[in-house]
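Hey L., structure's done. Input below.
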Amino acid sequence: MDIYKEWKNGRLPIINGIVYENGLIEWINIDYDSNYRRIINRGSNLSINDLISKSELHFSAISTCYQAENKTKGVTLYCGGGSYGSEGYVVLESNVESKLIWIAFFEESNPFEKIEFINDKIIVYNNLREKWSFDLKNPTNLSIT
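Output:
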């Protein structure tokens, strides 16, 4: 499965967590029932091929709300929403190699609308005005405020 091709065709896998260019998935489970969102655990690693073999891989048609380039880091970041109003995504792409680095996709995050780079942090804001902070090199190191 070519995740980069799917991304360029306007589709992303519906996975709560991070998907890397090589198809590795790191789940991130978030509590959505309280007055604020919090990470409750980070799940085990799977691959896109594991989900394909179980017929459990589904896609969402996405729309990009915002993109930002960081020339110093050699990357472009995109964010937006999916087919359902509750979905949100962040995509980090290499400008040097024109390839996908990682995708963050969440079914209940709401669309992300704004991006900031602060040192090695990527800060994205959703339409609920929540601030999601990802480490550039270790995106599972995530905080939500």
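The first helix runs from residue 3 to 8. DSSP finds two helices and 13 strands in the chain.

-- N.
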